[in-house]
Specification:
Blueprint lengths: L6 H4 L4 H5 L6 H51 L4 H15 L2 E5 L5 E5 L2 E3 L18 E8 L2 E9 L6 E7 L2 H50 L14 H56 L6 H33 L7 E4 H18 L3 E3 L6 E4 L1 H17 L5 E9 L2 E8 L21 H6 L6 H11 L5 E5 L3 E11 L1 H7 L1
Parallel strand pairs: 8-10
Antiparallel strand pairs: 1-2, 1-6, 2-3, 4-5, 5-6, 7-9, 9-13, 10-11, 11-13, 12-13
Helix pairs in contact: 3-5, 6-7, 7-11, 8-9, 9-11
Length: 492
């Protein structure tokens, strides 16, 4: 036989689900928890005070009166009537009781303290009606506006009935008031528990609600707003600070990814454009060489043009690989002490003929100074800067100079060329950016030389600077850490 579906499977809420739902707010759970545990304790104590304590007080008072009645009966049994009256009077006076004695023949006498009671009322009294055969009765009632307690016993051996009564003792009244006060206090405690649990839950859930709202906004892509928690609880403050730091980290990473994506798209577009031109040129020259009607001079011309474009394409790929290595492998920088003037001499010797072909004077005399850097990479920086200065200077000089500046050496490459317009200065270190595209392509440049300079110096932790006056001159400079001559000589 198939089992009936459970409450969860059938979608119906069972009794336990009504008290403990499977999904509820933190505030609901906190209130339910407070009410459950505190409410059970309050109800249990209240029931104990209301019923058990009250019953015990009543039982104690009843037993006390029974004992008093038994003591009186023990003393008045077997004595003469006059002596019996004297004993009852003394006991009632000393104990401040109301004592009534009924003889077997129905005669009754009573004392209220030391005062005799004239014609004591015994007919129709509940505790005395039909009392026989050793019975005992206890009764509470109000007489004359005062609460009275009575205990009556029957002695079979003597046939006497003894009743002891007293006004309800102040201690019993006080205990009754305390019992009522405890019950009221526990009801108030339960109400205050409900109120306190609601306030506590609200103070807990408000920051959580704010954090949940912020998390929802973050999941929807809105990470510009910080989480502000109005709470004095250190845990919530720390949680909000941690989430804000996490959001700031993600925000910066996303912005960086977006920036890199934009740079990547721009880079891919530039690369495709720069690579496509020499490839098309090589293809056109090869097609021209395939023609049978070319003269030897024309074939030589097309072959030289094709080789020039292949060299340009090769240089382009070499520069791209160099930039990628510098971006993702900063550990390629191996800093050592070396003589900077010796390196400048090597670079000048390599480029002096190119400067001479354009009628430029290359000036590179400087004092001997030692720096700490990657010698091969700094050589590449100097080659690019000086070669760039030669390419964009038609007359005058190109100077490479350096001098000590605080604890560093400032290296400058200054030319007297055409200069760079001010609106181009911010972009010249970008990849494939050219101030004069036509002239740059004719000179065989890839548009990556200054980008490589920037990447190398960035890997050294140094920026590169430029200032220029259009039509007059341009100055590039950067700094390298200075080392003492002794350290430089020792390293050499």
């Amino acid at each position: 036989m198939a089992e009936p579906p459970s409450d969860e499977a059938s979608g119906k809420a069972g009794p336990s689900r009504l008290v403990f739902p499977t999904r509820a707010s933190t505030q609901t759970w906190m209130i339910l928890t407070f009410v459950l545990f505190v409410g059970i304790a309050v109800i249990a104590v209240g029931l104990y005070v209301a019923f058990v304590v009250g019953s015990e007080i009543d039982s104690t008072v009843r037993q006390t009166l029974y004992q008093q009645a038994s003591r009186v009966a023990d003393r008045v049994e077997g004595v003469e009537d006059e002596d019996r009256r004297a004993i009852v009077r003394d006991v009632a006076g000393l104990a401040d009781f109301q004592i009534t004695v009924i003889t077997p023949d129905g005669q009754a006498f009573a004392y209220d303290g030391f005062r005799p009671v004239q014609s004591p009322q015994i007919a129709g009294v509940p505790e005395l009606a039909g009392l026989s055969d050793g019975q005992a009765r206890y009764e509470k009632r109000t007489e004359g506006g005062q609460p009275m307690l009575y205990a009556a016993i029957h002695r079979p051996a003597s046939g006497l009935v003894v009743r002891v009564g007293q006004i309800r003792p102040p201690l019993v009244t006080l205990l009754g008031r305390l019992r009522v006060a405890l019950i009221v206090a526990m009801i108030m405690a339960l109400c205050l528990t409900l109120l306190g649990s609601w306030i506590a839950a609200k103070r807990v859930t408000e920051p959580l609600e704010e954090i949940r709202r912020s998390a929802r906004e973050i999941s929807e892509g809105n990470m510009d707003e910080d989480i502000v928690v109005d709470s004095r609880a250190s845990e919530f403050q720390d949680l909000a600070d941690s989430l804000n730091r996490m959001t700031a980290t993600y925000r910066s990473q996303i912005h960086e990814l977006q920036r890199l994506a934009a740079v990547q798209n721009e880079f891919i577009g530039n690369v495709s454009h720069e690579v496509r031109n020499p490839i098309f040129s090589v293809g056109g020259y090869l097609e021209a060489l395939a023609s049978g009607s070319l003269t030897d001079q024309q074939r030589k011309f097309y072959a030289e043009k094709g080789l020039t474009n292949l060299v340009r394409l090769n240089n382009l790929f070499n520069d791209l690989i160099e930039i990628a290595r510098l971006e993702y492998r900063e550990d390629l920088i191996k800093a050592i002490p070396f003589d900077l003037q010796e390196l400048v001499d090597e670079v000048a010797e390599q480029l002096i003929s190119k400067a001479g072909e354009k009628g430029l004077e290359l000036i590179f005399s400087n004092p001997k100074l030692y720096v700490r850097a990657d010698r091969a990479r700094i050589r590449q920086v100097l080659v690019n800067l000086i070669d760039n200065a030669i390419a964009y200077s038609d007359e005058g000089t190109v100077r490479c100079r350096f001098r000590r500046h605080l604890e560093k050496v400032r290296v400058e490459v200054v030319d007297t060329g055409r200069g760079i317009p001010e609106d181009h200065l911010e972009n010249i270190f970008e990849r494939f950016y050219r101030v004069d595209p036509d002239r740059s392509r004719k000179s065989g440049g890839t548009g990556l030389g200054l980008s490589i300079v920037k990447q190398i110096l960035h890997a050294h932790g140094e920026p590169v600077h430029v200032e220029s006056t259009a039509g007059r001159s341009t100055r590039f400079w950067f700094e390298l850490p200075l080392v003492s001559n002794e350290e430089g000589v020792a390293a050499a």
